[in-house]
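Researcher: Let's continue the batch. This sequence belongs to DNA-binding IclR family transcriptional regulator, and it's 273 residues. Same format as the previous ones, please.
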Amino acid sequence: MNAVTVPGTQVVSRVAKLLRIVGKKSDGVGATEVARAAGLTRPTAHRLLTALTQEGLLDFDTVTSRWFLGPEIYLLGSLAAQRFDVTDIARQSVATLAELTGESAFLSVRRGNETVCLLREEGSFPVRSHVLTEGIRFPLGVASAGLAILAFLPDDEIEAHLRNMGDRNGIAEDRAGNSLVPRFGEEHSREKVWERIRHTRKNGYALNPGLLVEGSWGMGAAIFDAAGRPAWALSLTGIDSRFKPERQSELGQLLVEQAHIVTRKLRAESSRS
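Model: Same format as before. Here are the structure tokens for DNA-binding IclR family transcriptional regulator:
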């Protein structure tokens, strides 16, 4: 059965979207802001937010009239962390990258057809890029972490991802399958993404030359699970003057080395469990 025909699917999708919206703001979110971000009327958003609060998935501050993630989310997250969370294993590599390069370093995880930033460590260089923050999501192939992961998936999975992203975001693709273009620009056409995939496979690391925010560059390297599939990525971001061609190979080598270290640690951990 196609998922869209399952009764209640729309409600589940709305609830998941609301939780993500609230989770992006550490200082809470008002009902009007949630409604606007979710594409819902304010009464509908308020009704869903109230129901989620009653279940403990959200928490409502009566003083500020803002919603926050609730205690049940914390409990569920703690349980999920036992299976999915690799931040403890990767934390040292993220810190090492920030220390050696002076740039902001990150750990991101693949969640379906997106990457989610899990961990950020600031480097010593005073001018920073703020494109990536903990909790932010991007489709695979957009930011450097997602490109690093996408590049090492099988070709048929890559094609399916590029073809279907439009459907997931309510955007019709064109005949060339350019479903990322309406959101992220012509540099994210199918042809351009494939060009960067080939570059990533050749060099072992991904490069994002200011494609999300002008002047803000990123580089990423994939971390592989026990089955040999790319599931996480380490990345660096900074201003363009810090990512000149003569430095890219140095940064790329550091990223790949630390990604391999984390991969080995994860496999060792998996073999013991």
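Researcher: Any comment?
Model: Residues 3-76 form a domain with the Arc Repressor Mutant, subunit A fold (CATH 1.10.10.10).
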